[in-house]
Specification:
Layout (H helix, E strand, L loop, with lengths): L3 H14 L5 E2 L18 H11 L1 H10 L19 E21 L5 E20 L4 E20 L11 E7 L1 E5 L6 E9 L4 E4 L6 E3 L1 H5 L13 E2 L6 E8 L6 E6 L7 E4 L1 E7 L4 E6 L13 E10 L1 H5 L7 E10 L1
Parallel strand pairs: 10-17
Antiparallel strand pairs: 1-16, 2-3, 3-4, 4-5, 4-6, 5-9, 6-17, 7-8, 7-11, 11-15, 12-13, 12-16, 14-15, 16-17
Length: 332
């Protein structure tokens, strides 16, 4: 059995090398069709189809679902005083309902597809009780996620109508538990490099513009903000601020993985905490004991920030409550 320190070292090394969750080819970029998809008969239906099948939109489930229950590194929590102590846990998705609302901007050259997912499943925990008995706990969950996909008009053909709009950008994804169990909320994300700090408070207004869109001069009118595009080996620090109604320390992790390292998580460190009359503001960072560097795999990727309440893991009777953001990015 590995000690907790050894597990943390392995997770940190994996994160340094591969802070990713899913990818697309770096030469062509996401999305394009050779023929009309089955059931798509209009431009509107084509936008909706490509919005839900955009690699970043489809990657949400890959980033935040688990193929098995995995070790949480309970030593990162601080105080542990609850009904059970988790050994492993995982989020298993059993159902997803997707809806798309499309807005065509004035001028009929830019469209924004707002993708909403209603996600249901089971949060599974392998835990130890105070009597040192191993138990399995299952908690149903219902999360909701939202993301925008930007489209640029590329033509007006009545014959090849499915090619008239192409996806050129994706916003961050914002997800979390639906009321009344939405007990914590990610409020701010900071992506810090030696040359810039990107501060994001509205994830649906920060976009990654696909590289091939630049080459083809298909830039959407998305002016609010852009996520960084990294060079391989570039130093990166991630800082997350959340609000929670839980008096005990929440669990926050970066979700990452590529190839053989899919569906991994690396815990973040609590660095600040304020009690605002029963609502706690907590700030987490990636480890500051050693630099974290961007991987050298070129292309488009996702990383995720995944937060759950202390009670979600340590109280077998408390409901599941989570907040999560997915961040698309590109590595040159």
């Amino acid at each position: 059995m590995k000690k907790r320190g050894e597990l943390w070292t392995l997770a940190s090394l994996a994160l340094v090398g591969l802070l990713v969750a899913g990818c697309a080819d770096e030469q062509t970029g996401p999305g394009d069709a050779e023929g009309a998809p089955v059931g798509v008969t209009t431009e509107q239906e084509a936008i909706e189809y490509y919005a839900v099948n955009d690699p970043f939109v489809a990657n949400d489930e890959e980033t935040f679902a688990d193929r098995e229950v995995t070790a949480p590194d309970a030593g990162s929590f601080g105080k542990i005083d609850a009904a059970v102590t988790p050994i492993r846990f995982g989020r298993v998705i059993t159902g997803i309902t997707k809806t798309v609302e499309t807005t065509v901007e004035p001028g009929d050259t830019v469209a924004i597809a707002h993708v909403t997912k209603d996600i249901t499943g089971m949060f599974k925990i392998l835990a130890v009780t105070a009597a040192n008995e191993t138990v399995r706990v299952e908690k149903p969950f219902n999360d909701k996620s939202e993301r925008n996909v930007g489209f640029k008009r590329a033509g007006r053909s009545p014959i090849r109508f499915w090619r008239n709009w192409v996806p050129v950008a994706s916003s961050l994804v914002q997800g979390g538990t639906v009321p009344p169990n939405n007990l914590l909320t990610i409020k701010k994300l900071e992506l810090i490099t030696p040359t810039e700090t990107i501060v994001i408070t509205d994830p649906q207004e920060f976009y990654l513009r696909y590289g091939w869109a630049h080459m083809n001069q298909l830039r959407p009118v998305l002016q609010k903000g852009e996520v960084p595009q990294f060079n391989g080996g570039q130093e990166l620090r991630v800082r997350v601020t959340l609000e929670s109604s839980s008096p005990d320390t929440d669990f926050v992790a970066i979700r990452y993985g590529v190839m053989g390292l899919h569906w991994k998580r690396s815990p973040m460190t609590l660095v600040e905490e304020r009690d605002n009359g029963g609502i706690y503001t907590r700030v987490y960072e990636t480890t500051r004991t050693r630099p974290m560097f961007m991987h050298f795999h070129r292309g488009w990727f996702n990383m995720g920030i995944d937060a759950v309440t202390h009670e979600t893991l340590f109280d077998d009777q408390a409901p599941y409550s989570a907040s999560w953001w997915g961040i698309p990015y590109r590595v040159f």
